């Protein structure tokens, strides 16, 4: 658990430093944010390639994965619906429930609560020594599926704002193709998987994703083609052939499997360092929240377009340049009531995490109640994909308290990630009768 505490400390350190970036870098702030974004994409790609490499599917049991996708979809939908209603009922002006525009803003902003942070989750669970457990294997597939569900569902949500655009159809086709490649060519691509090669693969994927976005942005600034690096990196990992199976002559020595190359001390050391870097970068990607509470004059020149580049990718729609005062919805000279904001942040965090509890009521034939509860808690961490949703919401000029509360709730969930993982670890350790299971 020492590594979990170190990762949590690095994440919090990154969050703290992110609040000083705007003042320290000044005119160079936007360039710094872009560098952090690219580095975050690269580290996430490295993590997800390794996750995909260790991922397995039993193709003869499609019914099982259909159920897993349903569980993941509900675990993504419930937080979204609950947060949407909370925004409309408690944060928007009275009577907002009768306004279609209010519901559009709430539905898009609340989608930040849907996806589990796959990169953060996998790094933390591995650091906690849970990689061999049923909880890790089930959380892995559910996290991938709920991120996939979020990416797919963003297409109709964006249609509400920009109408029928061919770029959204391209995104759907690319995502469908990637899923098909992972299924059709699971572990058949014979290429190296050692860390120098994975560094190279990650770099190429980042370049491709950025090139697609930049090129499409030149064609249409309103709706560029936005491909999350998380999915292609995971698919590539799924396609890379294993080196520890009986089908390879060197894979068996004296009747035993040869240890996988990723289990070597050197590979584990590099993976630990990359995960640590990823934690810092996720923290550094947070917008300068302190700017939202100072006077309008102090922030009127702040470029919060760059600040909104919170995570892995630029979201796509044209961003407007807004001051922190405009994002909070405060008038000139008006200060934000931080006590009220803090209350709503706590409530929206509680509501969004309660929505993630659905997996605890599933898999009764596979796991004990402690394990099922551990899987649900493991789905709490938010990060790269959810922050990308907020970036899209801001780029469509959605502002006001709901955006501020959503950003702060995301930050709070990041800070609490270590607490969630400790809870998962204790739930698994408290279960003294873990039957052996097939990998999920």
Mean pLDDT over the residues? 81
What is the alpha-carbon Rg in Å? 21 Å
What sequence of helices (H) and strands (E) makes up the elements?
HHHHHHHHHHEEHHHHHHHHH
Helix percentage: 55-70%
What gross morphology would you assign?
A: globular
Whole-number tally of structural domains: 1
Q: Uncertain spans, ≥5 residues at pLDDT below 50?
A: 245-257, 290-334, 436-440
Number of helices: 19
* CATH topology call: Na+/H+ antiporter like fold
Alpha-beta content class: mainly alpha
**Percent of sequence in beta strands:** under 5%
The strand line-up of the biggest sheet is 1-2
Give an overview in words:
With 440 residues, the protein is mainly α. Helix content is 64%, strand content 1%. The protein has one domain: Up-down Bundle (Na+/H+ antiporter like fold). Strands 1-2 form a two-stranded antiparallel ribbon. Strand 1 (252-253) and strand 2 (256-257) form a beta hairpin. Helix 8 runs parallel beside helix 10.
List the helices and strands and how they pair.
Layout: H1 2-18, H2 21-25, H3 29-53, H4 62-91, H5 100-110, H6 118-127, H7 134-162, H8 166-184, H9 195-219, H10 230-239, E1 252-253, E2 256-257, H11 265-284, H12 296-299, H13 304-307, H14 324-328, H15 338-354, H16 369-378, H17 384-395, H18 401-415, H19 417-430
Antiparallel strand pairs: 1-2
Helix pairs in contact: 1-11, 1-19, 3-6, 3-9, 3-10, 3-11, 4-5, 4-7, 4-15, 5-17, 6-7, 6-11, 6-19, 7-8, 7-16, 8-10, 15-18, 16-19, 17-18
